Every structure is written in structure tokens, then in C-alpha cells.
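Milestone M4 deliverable, item 7.
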Amino acid sequence: MPPSDFANADIDKIVDALTTDEAILLSAGVGFWHTHAIERLQIPAVKVSDGPNGIRGNHFFMGTPAKCLPSSTAMGATFDRDLLEEVGLKLLAREAKLRSASVILAPTCNIQRNPLGGRSFESFSEDPFLSGMLCSAYINGIQKGGIGATIKHFVGNDKEDDRTGYDSIHYRTTSSGDLSPSVHAGSRNMPLHGAIMTAYNRVNGIHVCENPELLQKILRDEWKSDVMIMSDWFGTYSVDVGLNAGLDLEMPGLNKWRSLESVNRSIQSRKVTAKKVKERARKVLELVKKCAQGAPEILDGDGLERTLDSDEDNALMRKFAAESIVLLKNDKKVLPLDRKSLKKVAIVGGNAKAAVLSGGGSAALKPSYFVARPAGLVKALKEVNPNIEVTYSEGARAAKTLPTLDFDLFTESGQRGWTGSWHAHENDDSLVALPTPIKTQYVDETRMFISSSSPAGITKKWTLRMKGYLKPRERDCKFEFGLTAAGRAKLFVDGKLVIDNWTRQRRGVEFFGCGSEEETGVVELKAGVKHEIYVDFCNVRGPADGDETETIMDSNPGIRLGGAEVEDPDELLNSAVSIAKDADAVIIVVGLNGDWETEGNDRTTLALPGRTDELVQKVVAANPRAVVVTQAGSAITMPWVDQVSSLLHTWYLGNATGDAIADVIFGNHNPSGKLSLTFPKRLEDVPAHGYFHSEKGKVTYAEGLYVGYKHYQHRNIEPLFAFGHGLSYTSFNISDLRLSQPIVSGDQFDLKATVKLTNTGNITGSQVVQLYIGLPKTSELTHPRWQLRGFKKMRDVKPGESREVELVMDRLSVSYWDKEWVVENGAYDVRVAFTSEEGVGEGQELLGRFNVEKGFGWRGL
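Output delivered:
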């Protein structure tokens, strides 16, 4: 029968028919991305795929080109549930089907304790209510498209350093904080079609994948969830403990714990029962059935991955990216720029030309198209004035590693990229490569995370040799190359050894912590000469100080070649200042990239890299009307902020980056994004500062409930920019706050707040109305001053137009966690505003109060 017939499967009957070995096979994956098929019982395999901002497909290396969406923090900045549901349905679900994937490994809804967290950009917000509501919308859209979603990383994965070992020490924060997004999503969401993915770390002493308190007591018993629970990749640490605790599926299937031999031995030693293994297999079968019901065409398809862009999709991508952009300052009303009045525009900054789409790690993918910042800006300018002069200067280098050479290398025939030849070794133990390749292929990328994409039939140890030609330079110059390897590598230019990252290495954090530090070398290049580039790579790490072991990279080999012309830093900065002085308009584009913000390691500073801050200060001094555009997936510090009158924060915007930024800068799109996390003035103001790092394996949540804006309000610390802040090219006010009488019926609660929103400016715009709750001051427990408990984005409000906004509160809106969810009796304060920042002025915030006569407790969702 076709695999989709499994939609009608009798799960009870199939579970009864499973042999113990078949049940064991179902409890772990196959390869990197599939569940196990059981042909005897006609059980099909299901393919899963990353990730939060796009669907990559099977391969990191030479992957299928895909739609790269804005980062999750950018999604959070939209404050728009309707838009996220539309994106889930029209973009993510469709992309999953193009990749033949039935389940998306997203959304990520961890709380951002600290913007230093390497994957901070992958989560929606520092606020659990905003995260949970947007998570719900994201999932609803995906599931309406017949695709399964995966809530991750459950729970406490708020940092990357030591992520598989550290112990998150929680007290009141477990349910009120890190679990809360899942609570909000689950209580307002249709039944989850896909899965929940366990975090790598421990919580209160026990790894999450082995934690019966979290997996069984909370998920299964209290929340009544029947969803399948899977591990993060290589995030399983035992056989029997995880099986007994409730971990249904170990992923991936490489180097797995749950082999037939290991699980059968655990059964024989009575550490786990065959019945328990079948319980785990049942949840996998239930997922397979849901996938067959949701998108049967995937299971019946050919399994091939495809790329398809349409005008409709590209327009939605562009709109989505523009909706997330946050106007932080516009003191002198420089923005939007009037293109008709401009004759000379200067674009400066390290991020202006760089192809920065997303953060790094599992969020990274190959874009099906990319509109760079200068391309989008120049295109928009020339639409109005074809003769406008646009000048560019990098000004200050921003890269952590030298930029990849994806667009600088060419094959012998002139095609962009280079050619790779795969060589088996004499045997599995040998480092000697055979001279005749078993495969030769074209490669169009110079950061190659090969992962498990080596050719079939190759030896355990193998060699990949890459050859291409560097695009000829316009002038004689010094060129610096950088070579990083998860394995070992050498770089030759014109046959001469330039970099030896083979004989002796320095361990680094690239390629999920398996790569070396970048080694560099400088070459004198001649103008107009096509210099030959050759890299010899082997998937066995070389010896390093303190680590002489030559480890085989069997699941995560990779190589990265970067490079750039050597520039004098002072001359580079001076060139930016020079072109800024003479320009009618200056656009400064600065920020971070996927090297700085990435899975696998945390940032060490909130400062922009290198001399970026100095660049901004000097360019703004030369031209005070300069517009600053920052790009980062989370918060950064801005010591120059008082000198700048116009400031946009643009996150990571994906494929449509350049067009979206141009739309906002030139007024085709009126900005309406709101900060999804607080921007502090300094690192020391961050709530988790001083206890964010793993100390002998312990990470203590000493800030308790006071994460994000709640901390700044509690301590009366003024942030750089507050959570929920975001300006518009028009103006709004709110009035007429009305609160209905609370309705309490058993353990249910209902209350409606209504306000009138008015566009008091002269441009059509959108605004987010935010509702914050203050719990009774008579409580025996301390609580944050204000907690977001409602928001609504009102789109396209015309000048002079007024609209009524209704915000509904339920029992979760007025609850706190104290061994159960508690709704206290007493007086509850209400604040409705456009930002979390208090005291913002008349017409910008409204205060109210309601009383709950009789409180109650409750559990579950």
C-alpha cells in the first residue's frame, strides 16, 4: 500500500504486532533526518528538517536553496500573530513540502535571559507571554498546511557554552519563566501535530531527556500532552534512563545509544522493559500517522528536494522583513529619506555589502535568492533618479573570521565556485589518500559544513581536494586568507603552501565546536592575474596543544576558506568619513553576523566588533544627518546613541534584506516593529549578569522572575531602549480604557479591556497596543511590577482614523506559579501602552484596575 495509507492505521494493532527489535528501531532515528521505517508492517519513515527561519532540507553542504526568513527575534518584533500564522502556512509549510519534510524542527521558544546567548536570535523574545502567543500562531499556520511543528528546546537551554553539561538551577522560574511559553502556546493552540524537543542541558540536576518530572509529570500528566518527545541532535546520554523517563525518540540515528544490542542488553538486565520500549515506539507511530493525515503527498512522493520561488512568496518575504524593522530614533525626522532630493548618497559600514542573512548554526541555510543591503538601496534610489551617485566604504572591518569567498572563486571554465574531488584512503585507518577520486563535483560555497554528506562508499577516513581560481584583482595588493577546519587542511596559492592548518592545530568553536581556530596567511597578488587556489582537507583532526588525539570527524567535518584584501585600518576609516562629508545622505550599516551569534558558543560582549563604534562616531560627526542601520539578532550596546538622530534596528532579515531596509528608509513601508527584547546601556545591567556562565557545571537563575524588562523596572535601571519600544513615521494615541467586570466561574476567568486607538499624524501606519498586568500588592510573594498579558497589532490605520481595540484576558493572564497556578483575590493593576517603558506621556499610556473577589488555583494548560 502507499505510505499515506498509514493515515488509517490501527496503532493499537500495530504496536501489538511489533517485535521488540522493531520497537527499538522505532525509538531512534535513521541517519541525520529520518525516523525508522518498518517494511514488514508497512510503517513509512518520516523526514524532519531545520529550522526556525527556513527549511534547509537534508544537507548543510551544497544544500537545496531555500527561503531564509527573518530571525525569530525579528518575528517577535512584529508582535503580529496573524502575520506569523500566514507565514507559517504560506511559506514554512510549503517549503517543508518542497523539501519532502513532514515535520519542521521549530519553533524555538526559550526565554532570553541574556543577549549574550549564542542562539538568542533563534527565540522570539525575553517575554514568555509574547513568545508563547507567537509560538502558537507560528504552529497554527504550519499545521494548517498539514506539516508538524516541534517546540524546542524544552527546557532551560538559554545559553550555548557547556550546553550538554550545565545544570540550570531553577526555583520559581521553571513554570513562570522557561516553561511559560510552552504553557501559553499549548493553552491557546490546536493539538500539536509534531513534537517537543528536549534541551541538551540539565534542569535541577537531571538532564531534560532523562527527567521524569518534566517529561512525565508536567508534559504527560499535568498538561495531558500526547505529543511525541524527541531529543536534540546527539542530546541523548543513556539508554534505559531516557526510555524510562519518557524520551520517545533519540535523534539522530548516527552514533546512537539506542542500538539493538544496547537496548536488548538493558531489557535483559531489567533496567528497562520491552513494554516501556513499545510505549516509546507508540508515540513515534502516532506521529507518523499524523504526518500521513496532514500531508500524505510527502510520504507518497519521490523524496527529492526542490526550490520554488514565486512573486507572491517574495512579496510576503519582503513584507515580513519590513514589518520586523524597529525605528528606534528619528529625532530630527530625517527618515524617511526623500529620494527625489538626493544627488549623492554614501553607504558605509562593515555590514553594508556583507551577505548576512541569519545567525549561525542550525539556523543557517543556502538562500534561493538574496537582496543585499546596497543592492536594495541602490535599486530603490535609481528607480527615482537613475543618475544618482552612490559611493561605498567598508569603514571598519566587522567580521570575526575573514569573509567567505563564495563570489570570488571561479572554476577553470569560469563558473562561480570551485571543484572538489573526493578521495578514499588506502584503508579505514590510513591517512594516505588514493590518487584517483571516487567522485568529482562542482561546489559553489567556501564554508562547507559537510556533516554526513560525504559520498557513498567512501572510507571512514577520507580526503577532499578543492581547486579554483581567485577573481583577478583590479590592482596589485596583499590578500589575507583564512582557513578553518573540522578536520585538517592546507591552503596552496599558485602551488605554494600559504596556510598549514594540518600539522598542528588550535582548537576553536567553528562547526558546532569541532573546528579549529582560523589560521591566516598573506599573499602578494598581481592585478589581472588568475591565481590558483587549492585546499587539501582530511576529515581527521590534527594534534593540538593539550589534545593530541587525532579524532575522526565522522558526523561533523567541515572547512571554511575566507579572505580579503589587506587594508590599513586608519585609511579604511578615513575613506568612510571622507565620502560621508560630501554626501546628501549617509546610511551607516553596522552589526553582527552568524560568526558572532551562533549555535555552539555564546558571545562575550555586547559591543559591536572592532572599530565599528569609532566608525559610527566619526561618520556622524562628519555628517550629523547620517542614518544608522544596526543588524543583530539580539541586543548590542551603542555608546554613540546620543550623537545619532535616526536609528533603525533590522535584526537578520533573510532573503529580502536589502529590499525591506530600502522600503523603510525611503518610506514605502511605515515602520511598526517593536523590540522583542530590552537593549541595555551596558552588559552589567543585564538581569543575568554575573551568573549567566556555567560555573563548575552550574547555572543559577538568581534573577528569578525578573528577566528582561521586569528586571529593569524592578531595579529602576534605565535601559538603552525598552522592550516593546518602536516608533513610526506617524503618531498615535490611545484613550477611553474600559474594563469589563471579571467573570470567575470555577477555575475559569474572563475579562475584556477596550481602548480607542487614533492615528494623530498624517501618514497611514500600524501600531501595537500592549497590555500589562500588575498582580495584587497584597500577595505574600513578590512579583514583577508589570507583565505583558495582551497585545494586538492594528494594521494600516489612516490619518485621523480611530479604531476600538479589544484585548481579552483569561486565567493564565492573571496567574502566577506557586506549586500550582494561582489566581489571587485582590486588586489587579492594568496598564495599556505602546511600550513597556513607563511615564511616556499623555495619550501614550492608560492605567486602570479591577478586582478579583475570590481567587482560585488550577493545573494543566
